[in-house]
From TrEMBL:
PROSITE patterns: PROTEIN_KINASE_DOM, PROTEIN_KINASE_ST. This is Kinase domain protein. GO terms for molecular function: ATP binding; protein serine/threonine kinase activity. Residues 42-329 form the Protein kinase domain. Transmembrane segments: none annotated.
Length: 329
């Protein structure tokens, strides 16, 4: 590929990546150059999204004839190396759940190695790998949108999804989480942006849970003395520094409540006052937000949002309940 294509890609990614991402222009330039040098079978790159420490690109794998998502994480310093361990854990988790219907599919992972100029025995200039790991890369199933993006789009269009579609989405969200919980895996960062929207023959779409970088193996009685995830979706016990497998359910309840009330809940609806109501076991007042309290999804969300973690039933029980309610006229 021409140098112009490389430079154009560097410019596009640099202009789109958010300022809070650890991977900025110099690292983006290195990332692109290394991919073009070491993984030439990837073509047609496009920027998809970024997090605090990762960039996700769309690409075409010409060896396997498939469109994929590539997740890049730097590995040049100790903070990056800690992030690498988190991403490698995500890779191991995804391997465990390969081909699970409502978890994103994982294909491969590899390192991009640092390069430098050198000379061969005849004095010719050559590029060699130094043995230093520059980036860790995961190749995954391509899902170009997530639920947060879908929610934002539907709000903008002022067209809330019908009851049938909302319940199918909710069932798939719970099913994905249940896949983890039955193996005693706690996700620790349940939120709309971590549910990907993929194409499906059966429904036209499927919702797949992703981003297992914080996930941990844990028994139902065990807790983690740490606060990981996204603060707005923290359960009461997580706010106190104790994460449990049931903490995922509280976060799920918030996401379900938003799904069910897109017309009245804006993207910043989870504020301090709202969390205080929920943490105290109180209903959100009508004057604050109009919430449909007669829907099947609300009945499930209410169970998830119990302040005391032991009052939340399992993801499997929630799934069975919603499937049963969904099948009723």
């Amino acid at each position: 590929m021409s140098k112009k294509v490389q430079n154009d890609l560097i410019e596009i990614i640099s202009s789109k990546v958010s300022q809070d991402c650890q991977i900025q222009r110099p690292a983006i330039k290195e990332l692109v150059n290394l991919m073009f040098s070491q993984k030439k079978y990837f073509k047609n790159y496009e920027y998809l999204s970024n997090g605090d420490c990762a960039i996700i690109l769309k690409a075409y794998n010409s060896q396997k004839s498939r469109k994929v998502a590539l997740k890049f994480l730097g590995s040049s310093n100790q903070k990056d190396k800690n992030g690498i361990e988190s991403l490698k854990k995500e890779y191991e988790m995804l391997q465990m759940f390969s081909q699970s219907e409502f978890l994103v599919n994982f294909y491969d992972c590899f390192y991009l190695m640092e390069e430098k100029e050198d000379e061969d025995t005849d004095g010719n200039d050559i590029i060699v790998q130094t043995g230093v790991k520059s980036f860790f890369v995961m190749e995954m199933e391509l899902c170009e949108n997530n639920l947060k993006q879908l929610f934002d789009f539907l709000r903008k269009q002022q067209v809330p999804p019908p009851k049938e579609m909302k319940e199918i989405i909710a069932i798939q969200m719970i099913d994905g989480l249940n896949n983890l919980h039955v193996k005693n895996i706690m996700h620790r960062d349940i939120k709309p942006s971590n549910f990907l929207v993929c194409t499906s023959k059966e429904y036209g779409f499927s919702i797949k849970l992703c981003d297992l970088g914080f996930a941990s193996a844990v028994s139902k009685s065990k807790s983690f003395l740490s606060k990981k995830g996204t603060a707005a979706y923290f359960a009461p016990e997580v706010e106190e520094g104790k994460s449990r497998i049931q903490s995922d359910l509280f976060s799920l309840g918030l996401a379900l409540l938003e799904l069910d009330n897109l017309k009245t809940l804006n993207e910043n609806w989870i504020d301090t006052k709202t969390k205080n109501y929920l943490f105290n076991g109180e209903e959100i007042p009508k004057e604050k937000y109009q919430i449909d309290k007669n829907s099947n999804i609300y009945k499930i969300a209410k169970i998830c949002l119990q302040p005391w973690y032991l009052d939340r039933i399992t993801a499997g029980e929630l799934l069975s309940s919603l499937i049963q309610m969904h099948g009723q006229p």
